[in-house]
Design goal:
Protein name: DnaB-like helicase N terminal domain-containing protein
Helix content: 40-55%
Distance between the termini: 41 Å
Order of helices and strands: HHHHHHEEHE
Largest sheet: 3 strands, antiparallel
CATH superfamily of the largest domain: DNAb Helicase, Chain A
Shape: elongated
CATH architecture of the largest domain: Orthogonal Bundle
GO molecular function: ATP binding; DNA binding; DNA helicase activity
GO biological process, one term: DNA replication
CATH class of the largest domain: Mainly Alpha
Organism: Micromonospora carbonacea
Strand order of the largest sheet: 2-1-3
Keywords: ATP-binding, DNA replication, DNA-binding, Helicase, Hydrolase, Nucleotide-binding
Amino acid sequence: MSEPIPSGVPDEERTLIAQLMLGTEHARRIVEFLSYSDMQDPRHQLIYDTISAMCRHQEPMDVGSVEKALTYGGEIAAAGGRDYLRSIVSGAQPCPPGRLLALAGLIAGRAVDPSIPPLGSGPVDHPESPLPAVYLAVDDNGIGWAGLDRQRADERASNAGGVLVALPVIADYRTPQASR
């Protein structure tokens, strides 16, 4: 049996999907690093996978086009149905690019570290990683601070009512990797 999806997570996924269907200049950036498997809600996995394929093929990603693609692929029911798909964009307003990219980053990060909480749930103390990390203070407005100082990031996240996200650095990008 799969783990229950934490409350707040489906709302973040819905918000990201709505923004992609409303049209955003950052869609291609998001599709480059966020995988459908990073989504926790199976309906959102199907919808996002369809949207990302449409983005890669430079096809329109509005709700009508996504609905047609899901229907043509026989996946509209598994994606929650037409009414669910339309409810995702119903009443959605464009959000600032920083928040959109932060949502995508949190969703991708949560696929690696499920302890990352939904936005607005307050600061969290993550276990220390043996790897060096870049720390992000993320709140509803996006990434408010980024740096190598964990304590400072934690203070910023606490003051903003956001969360602390640690992104482990697994290789030094400045040093070329040896050929095998």
